[in-house]
Amino acid sequence: MATLTMVQAIARTLAEEMERDERVVVLGEDVGRRGGVFLATEGLLDRFGPERVIDTPLSEAAIIGAAVGMAAHGLRPVAEIQFADYIFPGFDQLATQAAKLRYRSGGQFTAPMVVRMPSGGGVRGGHHHSQSPEAHFAHTAGLKVVVVSTPYDAKGLLKAAIRDDDPVLFLEPKRLYRATREEVPDDDYLVPIGKAAVRRQGTDLTLIGYGTSMPEVLKAGDELAKAGVSAEILDLRSLVPWDIEAVTRSVAKTGRVVLVADAPRLSSVLGEIAATIAEELFDQMLAPPVRVAGFDTPYPYAQDKLYLPTVTRILNAAKHVLEY
Amino acid sequence: MVHETLPVMGTEWFRPFTEQSIALLNEEGEWIGDFPLDLEEALLRQLYRDMLAVRLMDERFTVLLRTGKISFTAPIAGHEAAQVGVAHALRRGHDWLFPYYRDYGLALALGVPPVEIFGQMLATKADLAKGRQMPCHPNSRVLNIFAAASTVASHIPPATGAALSMKLRRTGQVAVCTFGDGATSEGDWYAAINFAAVQQVPAVFVCENNHYAISVPLSCQTATRTIAEKAHAFAIPGYHVDGMDVLATLYVVREAIERARAGHGPSLVELVVYRYGPHSSADDDTRYRPREEVELWRRRDPLARYQRFLARRGLWSEEWEQQLRDEIAQELAQAIEAAEHAGEVPAEWMFDDVYAEPLWHLERQRALLRAELQ
Ligand SMILES: Cc1ncc(C[n+]2csc(CCOP(=O)(O)OP(=O)(O)O)c2C)c(N)n1
Ligand SMILES: [Mg+2]
C-alpha cells in the first residue's frame, strides 16, 4: 500500500494497465518524454517505448480520432487531452465518431477508449484552463462520463474505464491532483462505473457533489455536524450513467437535497438529477431540490475562488432547504 | 501518361506530383502505359462487370427514390472507374476501407452483398447497421468497411488510428480512406494525414475529386491547382490520377497500398472524376453547373472508354454486354426484393447499441416507448 496523490495514482494505474494488457496504449500531447504536463504519464515512455506511449502532433482531433480508429481496430487507447478546455477541437471526433460508432454500425464496430483530461478551476487558469465541460459529454449519447475526486477512486475508476467496452470520458479535477494523499492499495481493484460513494452517513439532508467541489461539500458537512445537522454526503463519481439508486435512496430518507458542482448551472448534470428527484420523490420531499453550481459566465480569472461553489454558499443552500 | 520505372523505395513506379493526371488509357481506349499490361483477362472483364453493376445499382437507387421507397440518394455515376479501381487495389477482407457516403460502388465491388446495400438504403432488417443511418452509408465488419458517417472528413482521423494500430500490431494490413474534394478543406483532413505521415503508418488517402462540393466549385475550395500537391505539406507522395480510367486508378492505388504495406508510409491519391448526377436527391445541379460542362464530361464516360479498351482486345461484345446487363438486373431485383422482405426494423431497436450494456436511463425510455406503442 502506497500513500499517493491523485496524479501519482493515475500514473501508476496507467503503468499497471499497460503491463496487464498490451493492447493498452497512451497517446496525447507531451505524454512521452515530458510525462504529461501534470506528470500523469510519468515513466511510461521509458517502460513501454514510443510505440505504446505516443507523443502526438498538437491536434485534439487527431488524438481522439486516431484513438477511435485504434480502438475499432482492436487496441485499448487512453488519450490524454492536456486540459479539458482543449477538448473542443476534438469534440467532433468525440460526438460524431466515438459516441456513435457502435450505434451507427449496429454494433459491428466499437470504440473502447478512454479520454482523460484535467478539468475544473481553482488554479488561476482563466477560462481556458478551468472549465468543467462534462455536460457537453453527458448530452452526447454513447459516451460514459466519470469525474474522480480521490486518489483511491482515480485508480479504481481508471481501471474500470480502460476495461469498459465503450468510450469513457475521464475527468480529473486538476485542483485535486496534488491536494491530498491517500493510501492506495497495490492490488488490482475496480471502482465500478455508475456507482456513487457515500462519503458521510446522515439523516437530515443529502448533499450531492462530485469532482472539484467535493472538498467544499465535505467541509460543509463538517460545519453542519458542528451545528447539529446530520448531512448525508454522496460523491457521484459517475455522471453517465449516474447512480439513481444511491440518490433516490438517500433523498427518500432525508427529504432534502442540495446538489453541488463547479460546472455552469444552465443545462447542467445537476439540473438533470434535480429534475429526476422532483419527478420521482415529489411527495416525500420536505423542500425543493436546490443547486449550488458555477455561474453562467465564462470561467473568470481574477475571481477564480469566487466562481467555485464556496462552503458558505453550500451552507446557505442547506439552511434554505432545512428551513423551508 | 506519366510513368517511370524508377526503383525508388523498392516498389516505386509512378511519379508523384505530375502536371497532367496519370492515365493508362486514352479516350479511344488504347493502352498508353509504357510498361506491359499485366492483368489477367478475367480481371480485365471483371472490372467492366463491376463498373456496369455500379452504374445499374445507382440507377436502381434513383428508381427507388422516385417510387418513394427511399428518402435519399447520393448519385455515383461518373465515379465508377475510381471506386472499382480502388476496390480491386486493396486486399478484400484484409485491408480496411474508411469510405464516405458516395462509395456504395466501392462497397459493391469489394463484395458487400447487394441485399445488405439495399437493406441499408431501405432501412430494413437486411441492414447490418439495423437501420440506424440515412441511405448511402456503407458498413461491413466482415469486409472491414468502417461504418460511414455523414460528417464530412470525420472518418479520416479514425483511418489514421486504425493504420497506427496495424503498424503497432504488425498485421500487414493497410487502411484506405476515401473522401471528396470538399473534405480536403476540413481540419480533420489535415490533422489526420499529418499524424499518419509523422508516424509513417500504412494508410492511403484517396480523394474522389469530382470538382464540386455540392455547388461549390474546386476553385472556391482550394487555391492549389491539384489536390495531390497538398501532399507536399506532409512530405508524402501525392498522385494526380485520371479517376475515370479504371486501370490507372487500379495501378496507382495498388502501388500506393503495397508501398504502405511494405512500411514506406502513407500517400495521397487524387482521382479526378466528375459526377453526372446532382450532388444528392435533394440537389438541383442546374443551378450551378452549365449543361455543356456536364455534356463534355459525359463524353468521357469511364464505362465507354473502358468498353472501347476491351473491344480492341476482343474482350467485349454486344452479346456479352446484354448478358451482363440481364444478369446484374436480375441480381439487383432479387436483392431489392430480399431487402424489402426482411421487414421493418422494430421500434425498440432504437435503444440497442448505444452502449455495450444497457444503461438504466435508456431501459426506462425503452419501457416508456413500449408502453406507448401498446
Ligand atoms: C462537416 C460537414 N459539413 C457539411 C456537410 C454537408 N455536406 C454534405 S456533402 C457536402 C459536400 C461534400 O463535397 P465533397 O467532399 O467534394 O464530396 P462529394 O459529395 O462531391 O463526393 C456538404 C457540404 C456535412 N455532411 N458535413
Ligand atoms: Mg466533390
Q: Could you describe the 3D structure shown?
A:
The complex is a heterodimer of chains A (324) and B (374). Chain A is α/β, with parallel strands linked by helices and 324 residues long. Chain A has helices spanning 6-20, 44-48, 60-73, 88-98, 101-104, 134-138, 151-163, 214-226, 244-254, 269-281, 304-307, 311-322, and strands at 2-4, 24-28, 53-55, 76-80, 114-119, 144-147, 168-173, 182-184, 197-200, 205-209, 231-235, 238-240, 257-264, 290-294. Chain A has two domains: 2-184, Thiamin diphosphate (ThDP)-binding fold, Pyr/PP domains (Rossmann fold), CATH 3.40.50; 197-322, Rossmann fold (3-Layer(aba) Sandwich). In chain A, helix 2 (44-48) links the parallel strand 2 and strand 3. In chain A, helix 1 runs parallel beside helix 7 (151-163), helix 3 (60-73) packs parallel to helix 4 (88-98) and helix 8 (214-226) packs across helix 12. In chain A, 59% of the residues are buried. Chain B has two domains: 41-343, 3-Layer(aba) Sandwich (Rossmann fold); 347-374, no CATH class. In chain B, helix 2 packs parallel to helix 8. The N and C termini of chain B lie far apart (66 Å). The chains are: A alpha/beta (324), B alpha/beta (374). Chains A and B meet through helix 3, helix 4 and helix 5 of A and helix 5 and helix 6 of B. The site of magnesium ion has 6 residues of chain B, from strand 4.
What spatial form of chain B do the alpha-carbon principal axes imply?
A: globular
Strand order of the largest sheet of chain A: 3-2-4-5-7-6-12
Contiguous runs where pLDDT drops below 50 for at least 5 residues of chain B: 1-11
Number of helices of chain A: 12
Give a quick account of the main beta sheet of chain A: strands, pairing sense, barrel closure: 7 strands, mixed
- Straight-line distance between termini of chain B: 66 Å
Helix content of chain A: 25-40%
State the CATH class of the largest domain in chain B: Alpha Beta
Strand-residue proportion of chain A: 15-25%
The tally of structural domains of chain B comes to 2
Instruction: Please tell me what the overall shape of chain A is.
Output: globular
**CATH topology descriptor of the largest domain in chain A:** Rossmann fold
